[in-house]
Structure to design on (223 residues):
């Protein structure tokens, strides 16, 4: 699957400098001019990289700040574009992995995007998600909900649910790992929802046996 990048900038010169280089690296680029629209996208979809033009006093900096709060994008590689007189330390404080100062010189853009691409690939290997299917049970307090598996990684799971729990809820999960007889249990935290009926959870507590079953299943999918 191609890496996905969200490019948030109202300035055409920035887009012209970045979009072609990202495409050369095999990255699909979605461009948003309006930072409020970009925030909406961050809460609904997952991106491998988020590039934000932070020059000026607009709401673009808020997009950079919110990347870590949008659960499915907490591991996205972030790049801040800043003006010639702006302090890069402020961008790093907002959570940027990389900072590019404008005007954007082509050689510098290429070097930084290559470095960012390498980091994207590292993050993808670390948090690789395996698409899967099957029934699951979510227990939230005394309530029990039915769900369907969407994907699994060593750190968490995505489910499809009609009535997802609230974000930050701690729930208990129960399901069989696909195509096995291994019954898997975990305590997980709800991290994100999408308008497509998906909910993402990160595992909080696993027994040694459940962790071993999950690692064995994940390794089997990579063969």
């Amino acid at each position: 699957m191609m890496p996905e990048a969200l490019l948030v900038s109202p300035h055409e010169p920035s887009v012209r400098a970045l979009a072609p280089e990202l495409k050369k690296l095999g990255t699909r680029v979605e461009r948003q001019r309006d930072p409020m629209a970009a925030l909406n996208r961050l809460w609904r979809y997952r991106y491998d990289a988020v590039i934000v033009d932070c020059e000026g006093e607009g709401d673009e900096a808020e997009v950079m700040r919110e990347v870590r709060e949008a659960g499915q994008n907490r591991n996205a590689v972030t790049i801040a574009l800043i003006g010639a007189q702006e302090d890069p330390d402020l961008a790093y404080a907002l959570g940027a992995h990389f900072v590019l100062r404008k005007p954007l010189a082509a050689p510098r853009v290429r070097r930084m995007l290559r470095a960012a691409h390498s980091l994207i690939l590292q993050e993808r290997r670390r948090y690789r998600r395996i698409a899967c299917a099957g029934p699951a049970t979510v227990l939230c307090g005394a309530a029990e909900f039915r769900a369907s598996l969407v994907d699994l990684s060593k750190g968490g799971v995505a489910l499809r649910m009609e009535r997802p729990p609230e974000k930050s809820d701690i729930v208990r999960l129960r399901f069989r790992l696909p195509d096995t007889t291994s019954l898997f249990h975990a305590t997980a935290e709800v991290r994100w929802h999408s308008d497509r009926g998906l909910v993402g959870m990160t595992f909080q507590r696993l027994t040694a046996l459940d962790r071993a079953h999950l690692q064995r299943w994940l390794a089997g999918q990579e063969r």
The chain has two domains: 4-126, 130-221.
